[in-house]
Amino acid sequence: MSEPEIKVGTTSGAPSHRAMAPAILGGRASSSYGLSVTDDKDARIWERIKDHPCFSEQAHHYFARMHVAVAPACNIQCNYCNRKYDCTNESRPGVTSVKLTPDQALRKVLAVASKVPELSVIGVAGPGDACYDWRKTVATFEGVAREIPDIKLCISTNGLALPDHVDELADMNIDHVTITINMVDPEVGAKIYPWILHGHRRYTGIEAARILHKRQMLGLELLTKRGILTKINSVMIPGVNDTHLVEVNRWIRDRGAFMHNVVPLISKPSHGTYYGLTGQRCPEPFELKALQDCLDGNVKLMRHCQQCRADAIGLLGDDREREFALDQISTKVEFDTSKREAYRKLVQHERGDQLAAKLDASKAVKSLGSSGTHSVAVATKGAGRINEHFGQAREFQVYAVSRKGINLVGHRKVEQYCLGGIGEKATLDHIIVALDGIDILLSSKIGDCPKKRLAETGVLATDAFAYDYIETAIGALYAAEFGGKPAMPTALGPSN
Fold it and tell me: Coil, strand, or helix at residue 370?
C-alpha cells in the first residue's frame, strides 16, 4: 500500500531549494534550544525535546500539541484567572469550552491523532490544576499511553500539589512538566494569589504565598533529581512582579529548571478577573521583550509561547479545537497510525534542510559585520516557512536580525484581516498598531491596500519570498540593505 500524501506545516508543497542536512552535522547534534550541542548529554536532551513544540523552538514548526480539559478542580485562586469565561476566539490559559471525562478525552485524542499527523504531545493544562485533580489526570494518561505508546505526555501545574506526585509522574514516563511560578517573595505573591487550599485548609495573604513558594521550589527540586525536564511559566504583571521576575529567574536556574517562559498578563475587563475589573494594565510588547532580553543567558527562554487554552489542539498559533467537537466524534474511533508514521519520515528530512538554511543565513548575516538591526514580522503556518496570507494571519512571529544573527524574539497576535475575501479597515488599523516597531513584514501574499498602509507607517511589506524559509528571506533582505547584495527571492513557490 502506498504511503498517504502528507505535507509538512501546510507549505502547499513548496519545494526545497538545498541539499538535505542530516540531524548530526559534523559530529555535532543539531540544537533547537540555543545550546552548543557538543556532547552525549546535550544530544540526549535534544532527543527528548525535538518533537515537543513547547520545549523546542524548532519543533513548534512541525509538531502539534493537544490539551485535554479533564482537570477542572483547582487549589489556588489567581488574580488573573477566571475559568468561567469562555470565548472560542480567545487564546488564554484556563479557558475551555467543554470539560471532558477521561473516557471522553481518550476518544477525542484518538480522533485527533488519526487526522492530525503532526500530533506529538498530549497535555493536561487544566482548566484547573492537573496535580490537584490528580485521579482524572492519571486515568487520562493511562488510557492514552495504552493506545498511543509513542506519544509524549506532559502536565502544567501551579506546583502546590506537585511534590506529592513527582514519583508517580516519573513512573508514568511523563518527561515534561510546566510549573507556573510568579514569585519567590511571599509579599509579592500576596498581590497575585488571594487564597490557596492546602492540607484541607484555606490560607490567605502572605501565609498562603509562603506555603505556595515552598511547595513550588520543592517540586522543582524533586523533578530535577528525577531527571524530568521542567519549564517555568511566569506571568509578567506590570507594577506587581515585572522587576521581581529577575529574582524568580535566578531561583529557578539554581534549582535546575530547563526553560523559562515569561508571558504577558491578559486582563480584559470582559474576562471578569480581579485584575481585569480593577484596571491592572497588561505589559506592552516592548516591555516584555526588554525583560526577556534581561533574563536571556541564565535559563533558556521560550519566546514562541501562544498562551494556549486548556483545550487547544494543533500547531502553536493554529488552533483546530473547533474541528473536533465531541458530539461529532464517533463513539468508536478507528485509530490510523499510517499518516503519523509517514509524516515523521518527511519531517526527519525537512527539519535538517531547515536547520541548514537557518545556519547558512545566520552565518552570512554575522559575516557582514554590520551594526544595523531589523525587526521582522512573519506570517507563517509552520515548517519554518513564509506560508501564510497576510489577510488570514491571526499572529505574526517576530524575528530580530543583527550582527548577532537571526533570532525569534516573540509574536504579535492580531485579528484576521480578510473575512469572506474582504479586508476590514478597522481590523487593519488594529494590525498596524500591533506591528509597532516592526521594520519588515513577510507573508506569502499581501494585497496592495494593506501593503500601502503599512508602507505609510514605515513597514516594508513583501510577498516576494513566499514559501521560502524564514531565515533565508530575512538574511537576503538584511544583506541587501547592509551588505550591498540584491535581495533575490530564493523560493520557487508552491507546486501547481
Answer: coil
- Is 325:331 a contact under the CB 8 Å cutoff? no
With 60 as the cut, is the pLDDT of residue 18 above it? Answer: no
What is the tens place of the pLDDT at every residue in 358-400? Answer: 889 989 999 988 889 999 999 988 778 899 999 989 889 899 9
Grid cell 498559533 — which residue?
317
Nearest to 269 by CA among 257, 280, 255, 254: 280
488: alpha, beta or left? (left if phi > 0; alpha if psi -120 to 50): beta
pLDDT band at 54 (very low <50, low <70, confident <90, very high): confident
How distant, in Å, are the alpha carbons of 158, 160, 181, 260 from that of 214?
A: 12, 9, 11, 19
**How far is it, in rounded angstroms, from Cα 331 to Cα 326?**
9
Grid coordinates representing 170 are 516519573
Residue reference for cell 506571568: 235
Q: Is the dihedral of CA 263, 322, 53, 395 positive or negative?
A: negative
Q: What per-residue confidence (pLDDT) applies to 487?
A: 57
| Each residue's pLDDT tens digit, 340-356 | 888 888 887 777 788 88
- Give the β-pairing of 152-157 and 176-180: parallel
**In this structure, are residues 409 and 399 in contact, taking their beta carbons and an 8 Å threshold?**
yes
Residue in 183, 314, 198 with CA at minimum distance from that of residue 251: 183
Given a contact cutoff of 8 angstroms between Cβ atoms, the answer to whether 387 and 467 are in contact is: yes
Beta-strand (E) ranges in 417-484?
418-419, 422-423, 440-442, 460-462
CA–CA dist 481, 465 (Å, integer): 16
- Cα gap 396→411, rounded to integer Å: 5
Please state the separation of Cα 414 from the chain's center in Å: 16
C-alpha cell at 71: 482537570
